[in-house]
Amino acid sequence: MTRSRKQRVTTKAKIEGFQMAHKHEKKENSRKVKQANKLAELKSLEKDGLLKPREVVDFARSSKTAIHEDFEWNNTKAAECHRLEQARKLIRVFVEVRQIHQMDQRVRVFTSLNDDRRIGGGYRPMVQVLSSVSLRKKLLATALTELRAFSNKYAELRELCSEIGRVIEEFEAASDTDSAPEQDQPQPTA
Q1: Does residue 180 register a pLDDT over 60?
Q2: Closest by Cα among 65, 63, 83 to 73
Q3: How is the chain split into domains, by residue range?
Q4: Mean pLDDT of the chain
Q5: Residue 184 neighbours by CB under 8 Å, 6+ apart
Q6: Residue 106: is its pLDDT beyond 90?
Q7: What's the burial of 91, exposed, middle or buried (CB within 10 Å: 0-12/13-18/19+)?
């Protein structure tokens, strides 16, 4: 290949790379503008310091709103989504009374692990999860993720979050020192 041909190929590759980066930047800016518009719409619906879901849905019915695309407007699909959410709620609501540390405690019958959520979701019997070393570790990882999310949600409440931060740090330190092999052996649940 001649030098001038190499230069043209190199220049063309640089231009294409720049164009792709520019496209990505435009797409990211477009996403940010959309999010800002959606937030502005939600804030505009707030009345007396309260944002009500019913008013959000009613506002979003207009296809001219930014938040319209965040809703399923096909009633058949929406009904199915609602039934799935009802099923999730039904699964989450069941508890059993179990002896834990010589006290009766209400515990959930089923639990959802982050790993399962990534592959379509589902719930596992809590007894099964607590009886398996690998599933128990996954439950602890899920709990830690949820604890971090809780901490982020209430980050402005310093008196609460400093304590949660301490718990997270202690848990992470304990997890780092845990070098037990990942064999599924029955684990004590109390």
Answers
A1: no
A2: 63
A3: 3-71, 85-177
A4: 84
A5: 132, 133, 134, 135
A6: no
A7: middle
